[in-house]
């Protein structure tokens, strides 16, 4: 069966396409209420999108407060708080496809740039974008393959995934409540073409906590 591809409109078309059928998706249960879904090759032509974002996104490096000290974060980041302000047609098309498939409105983006294997992020939860007990958090990989690790907050074995460029990882259920994830350093990646961008699709609805009022 031929895969149904959603192609970006406008002046950015090229070889970029999205698999709107999610036909290659494989879901694995992390526990009874948490899951991870991997969609290999969700985006075709990922290198074209990678080059666009490397050049045009206003990347910044930030300090993080940890143990009463300020540390320079070993990666660059960027944020689009309103999807309507995103100037890159591929990102808007991706958000629309995810909204249609998961029935959650993804209306903002958080992007991370790992320049090479020396950049990383430690164990954390996406608590700013998920303030509800259960959320669906899609993350697209562009560029170099890096290990994506998950482990239970309460302790236990680590689950490892190595998404390639164009692969989508979706964390669902209580994954942000009961699990941590990280991207560790990689000594095998040191060149300028070893950059990885992760595109985190966010929902303002999921970022709002449930109200206790009637």
How does this structure look, described?
- This protein has one domain (28-202): Alpha-ketoglutarate-dependent dioxygenase AlkB-like (Jelly Rolls, Sandwich).
- 14% of the residues lie in helices and 35% in strands.
- It contains 3 helices and 16 strands.
- A hairpin with a 2-residue loop joins β6 (63-66) and β7 (69-72).
- The radius of gyration is 17 Å and the shape is globular.
Task: Describe how the helices and strands are arranged.
Blueprint: E1 5-6, E2 17-19, E3 26-29, E4 34-39, E5 43-44, H1 46-56, E6 63-66, E7 69-72, E8 76-80, H2 89-102, E9 108-114, E10 121-124, E11 137-143, E12 148-152, E13 159-161, E14 168-173, H3 175-178, E15 179-183, E16 196-202
